Automatic annotation (TrEMBL):
GO molecular function, one term: nucleic acid binding
Occurrences of domain Alanyl-transfer RNA synthetases family profile (ranges): 1-233
Organism: Candidatus Ventrousia excrementavium
Bilayer-crossing regions: none
Cofactor(s) needed: Zn(2+)
Keyword Endoplasmic reticulum among record annotations: no
Keywords: Coiled coil, Metal-binding, Zinc
Coiled-coil portions: 250-277
Identification of the protein by name: Alanyl-transfer RNA synthetases family profile domain-containing protein
Amino acid sequence: MTIRLFDDAPGLFQARAQVLSCTPCDGGFAVRLDQTIFFPRGGGQPCDAGDIGGVTVSDTYDEQGEIVHILSRPVCGEVELHIDGERRLELMRHHLGQHILSSVIDQTFGVPTIIARIEDAGPHIELQSPLTDAQLMTAQELTQQVIDRDLPVHAAYYSPEEAAKLPVRGRITPHERIRLVSIEGFDLNACGGTHCPSTGGVEDLLITGTKSVRGVFRVYYCAGQAAKKARLDRGFAVLSMQRALSCENLDEFTAAQQALLERRDALEVQNHALREQLLRSDTALWAELSRTLEQGRLAAAILGDGDVKHLRAVAEALCAEQPSALLFAVRQSGQLSLLFMRSKSKTGPNLGAHVKDLCARLGGRGGGSPLLAQGMVPGSEESERAIEEVFESIAREYDLP
């Protein structure tokens, strides 16, 4: 097994190692060393950035205890290892900050963390149930108190039997050796990541947002220098919004925000009523413009503009009233968006086949079922002529009187 120097020395950014193997692989060469300072991706933490023997490491991962480094060129013998120290420090701060935040939320509100990730889109944790804004601010304040106490952090390996006897927060993934990270007198968690030697190393932690996703409550955060920058950015943003709303202080801004939300809700109600009115009006209009066929009615048109979603609602309403076929092509940003729909019947044209054939001939994309088909083709006179021909072909299939 590769000796994982980062386990006991996460602040070690340079070392020497012996190349044990270097073999071609997808993406370059897979290099295995006797020891490494490169953290392999996993456990919600990305791998380190850096170089081995002057060659950039593009990826690092764990393969049954051996850490594999992916390089663009081969290396051999004894090599120098360098990792991006600033990036490692920020990862350490975020990882330990997450331990503290998750433990605070669990201890204070009884809500465990399901998963934690440090990603470019934003470090975050996912909780079993949501927290209120007041609870989140309490969690942030309590987390900062733990950071400021500068509690020692230790990591050690245990057997599964030993780990099972300890008050570990969260689930322990089965392994031959279990690595536990303890924050002295505060938290004990199974984790293979890199962490600061004490909580003070996190420096700062800021909750930056929340989102409900896949039935869980996601909390975004940042730590260290990223948190300090986020606080400044947030302060600038609030001042800018206050200025835009002519608010002299935070109380006035809060009141203005509430007024805007109430205005938004009122406009949504009004907008919904107008959309319903427009739907009834356009349904009546296209019923009037439809051509009478022996099997129902048909409306077909190439429109200069239009909302395809709205036209679909119109088509659905007409098809529900009586047997109908609605064929629309809408000009949109140099393209033609196709929407073909008909009522369900034992016989009738296969609209999906028509749209698929039309798109294939004109260099577009689309298809669908016999009852509903959509697509997109380039906007041109040639396309419009071809669409008009398809309109007539479908009308003939409906057996004009």
